[in-house]
Amino acid sequence: MFDNGQAESLHYLMGLLNSRLLTWRFRSIGKLKSGGIYEYFWNSISRLPIRRIDFDSPQDRARHDRLVSLVGQMLAALSQDAGGRDAELRDRKCAALDRQIDQLVYELYGLTDEEIALVEGNA
Hints:
This protein has helices at residues 10-17, 20-29, 42-45, 58-78, 84-109, 113-119; strands at 31-32, 38-39. The chain is mainly alpha-helical.
């Protein structure tokens, strides 16, 4: 993904694209390969509903900045040493960050509890 002058941070877009919500959506439009792996091509990714930020809205700007911060924390956690007990701590931290990112993305898209349950497979 390349910066094309959009107002949103690339970390914001990374958070959206790696969220449960957009992963769930992509599974209905992406091409499934053998082994349960999806192919990610620009034409299918471009069909994802990317939530744009209204930077004139303090609430929208705060959500953007929070998502950028969470993605930054995730990248920092993933770069930690993968050996021994540190790996277990890193994995727990990443799982907690994933949950926070998903909750924020659900909020950004205005999902109801029923819609969240559907995405999470609990419907």
